[in-house]
Structures are given as structure tokens and as C-alpha cells.
Amino acid sequence: MLEKLKRIDETKIEIPADYKPGMRVGGIIYVDEVLEKALETQSVEQVANVATLPGIVKASMAMPDIHTGYGFAIGGVAAFELEGGIVSPGGVGYDINCGVRLLRSNLKREEAALRMKDLVGVLYTEIPSGVGSKGKIRLDPGNERELLLRGARWAVEQGFGNAEDLGKIESGGCIDGADPSLISSKAYERGRAQQGTLGSGNHFLEVQYIDEIYDEKAANSLGLFKDHVTVMIHTGSRGFGHQVCTDFLEVMERAINKYRIGLPDKELACAPLESPEARDYLAAMRAAANYAWANRQCIMHWAREAFLKVFQASPKKLGMELIYDVAHNIAKIEDHEVNGKKMKLIVHRKGATRAFPPGHPELPEIYRPLGQPVLIPGDMGRASYVLLGTEKAMKETFGSTCHGAGRIMSRHQAIKRAKGRAIWREMEDRGIIVRSAGRETLAEEMSEAYKDISSVVDVVHRAGISKKVARLRPLGVIKG
Amino acid sequence: MGNFEYIDISGDVGLRAFGSTLKEAFLNASLGMYSLITNLDSIAVEKTAALSVESHSLDGLLVSWLNELIFRFDTYGFIGKKVTIDTLECDTGNRAGLNTCKLSAVIEGEEFDPGRHEGKFLIKAATYHRLRIEKTDGQWEISVIFDI
Predict the structure, then answer these.
(1) What is the pLDDT of residue B1?
(2) Whose CA is closest to A351, among A78, A74, A95, A93?
(3) B4-147 architecture in CATH?
(4) Can you list the positions of beta strands (E) in chain B?
(5) Residue A104 and residue A178: Cα distance in Å, rounded?
(6) Chain A contact probe: residue of B123, B124, B131, B148 with most A CBs at under 10 A
(7) CA quadruple A238, A241, A247, A248: dihedral sign
(8) Rounded-to-integer distance, Cα A145 and Cα B40, Å
(9) For chain A, which ranges sit under pLDDT 50?
(10) CB contact under 8 A, B122 and A199
């Protein structure tokens, strides 16, 4: 089947609309010739399957970090008309508003490296992580409802961080239209003790330094300088969001019978946007998105406290300001232009990051001249990137770009590969201090298990759907 | 312990569980999933929980059942070592052509303690991805993939 794919230019290939029956539009996958070789047949099928869904506009797309997911491929971007279109929980993923935030600091790499063991130790103690861990925050049904409505604002009101942080979060850290009355009692229960927890798997908190600047003017405007320390947090809505997704997949399964939507794959279960099922899912998804923004806000607050404790400096001297916070698993109603026509669309990004251009009204004022900061985490041994959104992304990909490296090795394969090795020591030899709750997490998450993030970022940069600003290297890593 | 094996899949993990009866295959899928979360040898039998789920298909029943176990673990830390399935039945066909499938079971285990128990995979959900429940040569086989 893969021989049917056509190369459009050096950064993208096309899945023709006759690739499989029922496709309403074609597919576009952003890969160069090297990454094309790593494409899984199943993930290409999934991009084609999404193209069969009602109301899809322009093309079913995937970013260079594409890999097989459930229904929709990870790295997928798909936009649907509001009239005649659908919404699908599978196009968002189980971890609703999984995302990334980045903090800058005035600390220099050398100063930080001297205290890295202490810092990683304090961060590990202060930030709950790992399988079966409980958070320090206990929600009751009353304040959990408030949190679902107010997201990161709720966290700031509870004393986690400052009001200035809110302006530097996608959607202000609080998306409108959340309805806590649509949340199941199970999701409430599951979320009660998980606010302010990192989770496990590929979620992390990383202390990094800026090792390469690609666009000095943009980097300086963002407050990023060579050799300065940054902190990156990658986590989502935890068990709360997973339960919301699980609950609504059942609702959607009934909806496809009710509305007679024919699907090539059960995991694409969806409902017409105008249906009560779709409205309810979106309102519940937004509540979960707010849960995630509050979560990253709380974790950031504890990270700042850990730095203050270890470096015994004033907040002003440390200068740990939030750069930005992006969601990479979410569906949003946005304004786009398609074939010269202004349209409101529902854009699904599943393992894809919004990358809005300079001047976009949804950006905070400070970033309007620059474009939206895009935060791309890599694996724990190599690098992460800061990029900016572009006009070309707006034109080509509904203002979207990649979200990470993407695995190339299964978890068991990685664990097997790491047998007899002390991954933490290998990392320490490379100057990276790691702490992890799970014995096998470090093996699962070792560098070799992932694509090289640089090759992924190079494709989106060369394709012009975002542009490189800075590269960050890890110094200390907390894993669940 | 149970009759199951792991499926390797990039990004996530899966299980193949076997049984001479459907009940036994469901039981082995449950134990297999627990063994992805922690080492079952370290789990004691201290508490019991009686659980039941319903669905309108057998596939749906398996997914709902495993998701119920995931919910109990992720919310209350409850992890099972022993699973006894009392009922597992499907009535065929109402007017809409939907089945009613029911499962009730008793789980014996304890509360997970990160200090004493090893945490392996944090399972978010059981999925329909490549889900199969089949009987061949008198042997039931279940394949299920989990989102991690």
C-alpha cells in the first residue's frame, strides 16, 4: 500500500484520496525521505481512515513524529466543519490536554550543575510521581468542580504561582465551555487525589540548559539566553482525563449506531458536532483540559520552590518566569481560512502542537509580534526544542506542528535492550542526573527507544510550519 | 501465574490471554493486566471487592471490565492477586440487535503501596485497538492493547 504514497516536496508526502474507499479528502504526512522509511503501514492507514470521517476539511494530516495510535494516529491533525462535521475522543486521546510548559531562569548551567544532585533530589521529593503515587492536594467535590471550571486560575487562587503566569498559557490556562455536571462520579473520584502529580511513562520534569540558539532576536525576546537553565514539565490530566475519555468512548460507540456513521475502525467512534453527545463530550473534554492546566501550574510552583530552597536565592534573582504552556492532545473550535473562505472549524490535535503565527489574536500581547512559542520535548538523553508558530502553519496545517520525538522501540523491547545496564549511570556519565520512581521506567524511556528529536524538528522547520529558536539539553530528569 | 503473554507494540503494551472457557480467558486477562502494573508475587490477599459490569457486546464487556479494574487501581490503589468470575453471560438480541452482556466477579488483593510494591506500567485504559476474543480448537484467546 505504501507505494501509493506520492512525494509532494522534500518535507511532505501525499496519501491520494483514492488510497482507500470512502476517503473524502487526501492525506498529508510531513516526513522527509529518511523519516519516511520509518513510517508504520498502520499509522498511514490511520491517517487515511480519518479522511473518511464526515465534514473533514482540506486533508487528514500527520506530523513527522507520527506513530500508530488508537483510531487516529499520534501526530495527527484533522479539522472538521461545524455543520456536518464530527468530534471524536479518539482524535484527542486518553490523556486530554497532555502538554508541555517551559520556565526560564537567570541561573547559569555551571552554577546549576554543581547542585544538580541536590536539586533533583528535592524535586523528586516535592513532586509526586510514579505508579500508585498520591498527590499532596486532596480535592472535595466542591473544589474539584471549581478547578474544572477555572483550570490554572484555580491553582493560582490556591497560591500555586502568580497571576502573571496565566497570560503565558495556551487559552489562559482555562478554556471556556467546561461543564462539571457532565463529569461522571468515577472521573471525579479518580481525579480527587491526582491533582499536582506527574504520572508515569513518558511524563517528566526536566532541568535543562540552552545549548544552541538559532534565532537570537526571538530567543532574547522570549528571555532565553545561551547556557541559561530552563525547566520543562510534560504531563496532562492524569486519571481524570483518562476516565473522561473512557466514559465518552462508550457514549460515542452508541452514537455511531444512532447517527448511522459508518467507520473503518471502531476506535474512530465519534458524533455529529451538533448532537448532544458531541456537545457533552466537548464540555467534559474542556473540564479535563482545565484539570491538566491546573496540574502543570501546581507542579511548576513546587519546582520553583525547590529551586529557591536549593539555591537559597530570591525569586527575583532566580528569575524563574513561565515562557509558555501548550496542549498537544486537544480539540478546539478555531477560525481558519480554507480556499480563501473564512471558516470556523473544530481542529483535533492528537500528539500535535498548536503553532499560531505572529499577530494572531489568540496570542498573549507579549508574543503577538513573535508568534506562538512551541515547546517540543525530546527523549531524556538528547534534547528538546523551542520553536515559533508561523503564517505557513496557519495556511497549511491549521496552525499546527509536531509534538515530540515519537517512539521507535516498544516498551518491552526497550526493557530487554536495557537488561544488565544501569541507565541512570550511563546518563550520569553524560552529565545528566535522573531519578525515577519505577525501576523499569528509565529502561522504557532510554534515548534509543525514541526517534532523534532533531530529525523531527528539522522537518517542521524546513517545511516552514514552525521555526527553530533554541535547543535545550537535559541536566536533571525526574521520571514517574 | 496465569495463562497469558505480553504483546509488543510500539508505544504501548498488550496481552494475549488464554483459557479453556471464556471465563478462564477473562480471568487470565485480568491477572495479566495486574501483572503489567506490578509483580503479583508481592501482592497479599487482604481485601476483597465484588464488582460487576454490563455491556452490549462481548468486546465491550471485556473493555468495560478491564477499565473497571483500572479505575479501582488508579482511584483507590486496589490491586488484585486472585480473581473469581461468578457470572459471564450474553443474552442475544433485543430489537435493535444489541446483546446484553454481564460479568460479575470477586477480586482478592490489597492496596498498592509504592514503598513496598514495584510500579511497572501506569495503565490509562484498555482499548478496542486490535481487540480480539476468539475460540479456536476449543481454546479461547483474548488479545487486548492498553494505553500507557
Answers:
(1) 59
(2) A74
(3) 3-Layer(bab) Sandwich (3.55)
(4) 4-9, 12-19, 47-55, 78-91, 100-111, 125-126, 132-136, 139-147
(5) 30
(6) B124
(7) negative
(8) 36
(9) none
(10) yes
Task: Supply the ipTM of this predicted assembly.
Answer: 0.94
User: What pLDDT is recorded for position A276?
Assistant: 98
Q: Residue A162 region, left (φ>0) first, then alpha (ψ -120 to 50), else beta?
A: beta
- Domain A2-479 annotated CATH 3.90.1860.10: yes
Query: Across all residues in chain B, what is the average pLDDT?
Result: 93
What pLDDT score does B8 carry? 85
pLDDT value, residue B93? 62
User: How near does any CA of chain A get to the CA of B77, in Å?
Assistant: 6
What pLDDT score was predicted for residue B98?
Answer: 65
Please state the domain extents for chain B.
Answer: 4-147
Which tens digit of pLDDT belongs to each residue from B69-111? 999 999 999 999 999 999 999 987 665 556 799 999 999 999 9
What pLDDT is recorded for position B97? 59
State whether A438 and B120 contact (CB < 8 Å).
yes
Closest CB to B114 among A68, A71, A437 = A437
- B114 and A131 within 8 Å at the Cβ level: the answer is yes
Query: E strand or H helix at B68, and its extent?
Result: helix B58-76
d(CA B120, CA B6): 14
Q: Which of residues 3-42 of B touch A (CB under 8 A)?
A: 6, 8-13, 37-38
Rounded distance between C-alpha atoms, residue B42 and residue B80, angstroms: 11
Which residues of chain B does A131 touch, with a Cβ-Cβ cutoff of 8 Å? 37-38, 112, 114, 119-122
> What mean pLDDT do residues B127-141 have?
94
- The CA distance from B139 to the nearest CA of chain A, in Å, is 26
Retrieve residue B146's grid coordinates.
Answer: 492498553
One-letter amino acid at A348 equals H
Residues of B in contact with A407 (CB under 8 A): 10-11
pLDDT of residue A136: 93
